[in-house]
Amino acid sequence: MRELTLLYRQVGYERKSYFRNPAAAGFSFIFPVMFLVIFGVLYGSENITIGAKQVKGIQYSVPQILVFSVVGTTFVSLVINLSLRRDSGELKRKRGTPVSPGVILGGVVGNGVLMSLIMTVLVLLIGVLLFGVHVDLDRLPTLIVTVILGALAFCALGAAVAALVPNGDAAPAFANIVIFPLYFLSGVFIPDIPKGIANVAEFLPLRPFLQALYRVFDLSRAGTATPDWGHLGVVLVWGVAGAAIAIRFFRWTPRR
Amino acid sequence: MSSAPVIEVQGLRKRFGDFEAVRGIDLSVERGEVLAILGPNGAGKTTTVEILEGYLDRDGGQVTVLGQDPAGAPRALRQKIGIVLQECGIDRFLTAREVLQQHASFYPSPRDPDELLELVGLTEKAGERVKRMSGGQQRRLDLALGMVGSPELIFLDEPTTGFDPAARRQAWDIVRKLCEGGTTVVLTTHYLDEAQALADRVMVFAHGEVVASGTPSDLASRSGGSMISFELPAGVAAADLPASLAGSARQDGGHAGALVVESTTPTATLHELTGWALERGVELGALSVARPSLEDVYLRLIDDEETAQAAAAKESVDA
After folding, report:
1. Do B166 and B243 belong to one domain?
2. Which of A44, A247, B154, B300 could form a disulfide with A131 if both were Cys (CB 3.0 to 4.6 A apart)?
3. ipTM for the complex?
């Protein structure tokens, strides 16, 4: 119980710190919004081809931007944030207090999930108000579950990469070199990807997450949509692998 | 209160690859004592302290801190110690008060954050983000963070490195105030005046070994003698001094052109020196007699250790 109270407070401090940090909050909020507007203006009202289907552009752009938002507020943010804090000695200092490492990292993860949810609301609002994206209200719980699980998995992967990053200066490069190829291979930036690549990307963490989110916005599907457990399963397996690497290799002290 | 030592270390060893950072250190710290560990960079001070704090595992020796083995940093130990690291390590986007409240929540019986802020003179900066505070203010916050858990034992790793003299004095006052009430302190430092100002006992480390230990005044009196220092005018060399003095006169490291003679019988030595000077019609410039400072003793200890190391290295090469 005490650990949960501590975790709750820790998320609060992380949230304050995040919102006051222009590099963290600015980039992870402004970039997705900017891309959403660009995508929306470019082909939001046109039909685009996904595999064999014709889809209204904005119905596909919103899940794309959601993936981008969640990854930005979790994976990228954790890689950079944890590496910088390790360099500054902040993690070492906290590790010297009686608080459990789970609470320290849990605060960062909790904040990542919270920021992902806030971004989801923001992206939906802009999508609905500016570009007329259609959201089925019955599907909102599924959307929230999908975002939370995806955010958790990408936090774990972020912690894993942070464990392998030598120092804070190298962190942005590490984060980008991992994530940018995945964005392109998974159809996050360019929707129509060759089938061969799509088949491989199915087993990487990003594309299944995009597909699980797209299911919520897929108008060809009738009625409520339950979470896409098949695709989410792949994402979660990656999350568990990331958590295992983070637990095994995470360093609290700067490299000397 | 138990009378068992707060820290007990025997035969501590630690190596990093080929480098032996700590080579058989023994030490013991009593409750309420302030111990200063002095030594140059690379002497093994921080490595030793980080083993005591539980950050590093040792390669050999017995270590007990507050009755526990610090290896693996057990939580029961972390609750009872305070750590102030060399690097500041504070979330720069939180305010001073927020950081103290956050850390206070980690401990079972914390001190009041506002009271601590007042103690370190940061009451007016309580709502200021850490990134907007000066280096000195951040360090004071750092000291307050070290004390927020009401620790029985606090480690201060080079608490005033990089400070200007006034800020250092201020920091010392803060350390004294924070530790009123019998907190045991282990402090590492490069500065002798810091050790003299704060410590009950000083240990000098060099090359991973203890080369001297005692109260600051013990150490200062170790050289056994007074220092007679003077300058010779142009045309007179050290070799011209009476035979009994010429042998022991050496260059004063802190004063270019001056010679120093160390003597346990300063009256007689001074008599001999001035007698010789009067006879030769030589004026001794800047003549002074002084007790050796801790700094003199320290520099000599480090010097002797370096010489011994060099000799040992040479021997092993020769052999």
Report:
1. no
2. A44
3. 0.90
